[in-house]
Amino acid sequence: MPRLFQRLAKAAEKWGLDYEIICVDDGSRDRTWELLKAQNRRDSHWHCLSFTRNFGHQTAVFAGLYHAYGDFVAIMDADLQDPPEFLTSCLAKLDEGEGYDIVYAVRRRRKENLFKRTCYAAFYRLLKLIAEVDIPLDSGDFCVLRQCVVTVLREMPERDVFVRGLRAWSGFRQVGIEYERDARAAGETKYPLSKLMRLAMDGVFAFSAFPLRLATYLGFLIVGASLAATVLVLTWKLMNFRLLGHYPSEVPGWASLVCMMLFLGGMQFLILGIMGEFLRRIYNEAKQRPRWIVREAFGVQTDGIGRHRPT
User: Fold this and answer.
1) Which of 2, 185, 213, 292 could link 80 by a cystine bridge, Cβ 3.0 to 4.6 Å?
2) Directed axis angle between helix 193-207 and helix 210-239, to 10°?
């Protein structure tokens, strides 16, 4: 955490702008909140929010946007994998006068292990293929936004947030800049594979109806295959010819029947699971619970709960 304070403060000197830094403590159980409070007392640029519990990474990012009212708003993680020095390049790109409202960082290369790198690459390419909006490849939440973009994002009421998808959905002009993603500066990640999978599912289910259409496609495929198999079996029975070395009377058909039942049963559970994911999200939205609850805040005007504020 002290390295974050030092590097971000040093990078801010080059911006030539008045600035504030809003840190969101997503229910940590270490000394993070004490360090943030101490930094707030030392430097008035630093503001901080603490949640009552862990509400999730994307919710914490959205809470930061919810309270950010500067002309330009940057999103970055506190583990220094996103280098604060890179924000200078993003601000310069916005200042070029080409009409961009969003500058997002594109990861040229990751420092994770081969398995994670492969999973990330596969996910982004799958999402780009099936999403109904153009979500840039290999881009995370690390970006700089104009306030007009943040205002639009702030008015989006959904609970299962996928910030980079909402950013692309907004339709504002955006451009990517490549950067070298660093290794984690210290500590261990609080974002295990299970949470990464949940984030990936939020991205897929929030920005693509392909899973629902997949159930339809599989249904037509199975019906077609079943009709073809039925015609083949009836012809085989009526014509009584040798098929795969056997006559109809030699093969009772129990094994094929059991395999077909298991296959169809598996497909039914798959389709029900897909529908269940969408229903869970609808149910979550219908409850209208606050998206987060603030336990304590320093330097930030907050209503304490993350409810959608109508325009």
Assistant:
1) 185
2) 90
Nearest Cα to 4, choosing from 144, 141, 182? 182
> Across-strand partners of 102?
145, 174
Query: Which is it for strands 46-51 and 294-298: parallel, antiparallel or unpaired?
Result: antiparallel
Q: Domain 2-191+289-298 belongs to what architecture? A: Alpha-Beta Complex (3.90)
For the record, the structure tokens of 1 come out as 């955490």
Length of the chain: 311
Gap between the Cα atoms of 257 and 239, Å rounded = 21
Distance CA 220, CA 308 (A): 41
Tens digit of each residue's pLDDT (9 = 90 or more) over 26-52: 999 889 999 999 999 999 999 999 999
Structure tokens at 28: 């940590």
| CA distance linking residue 160 with residue 285, whole number of Å | 8
Residue whose token pair is 């897929």: 204
pTM, rounded to two decimals: 0.73
DSSP per-residue letters across 175-193: EEEEEEPPPPSSS--S--H
φ, ψ of residue 197 to 5 degrees: the values are: -65, -40
Q: Under 8 Å CB-to-CB from 306, ≥6 apart: which residues? A: 59, 62, 63, 66, 290, 291, 292, 293
The answer to whether 179 and 109 are in contact (CB under 8 A) is no
Q: Do residues 99 and 173 make contact, with C-beta atoms less than 8 angstroms apart?
A: yes
Give residue for tokens 């604060």.
84
**CA terminus-to-terminus distance, the chain:** 36
Q: Residues 211-260: pLDDT tens digits?
A: 766 766 777 777 677 767 767 777 777 777 777 676 666 666 644 675 57
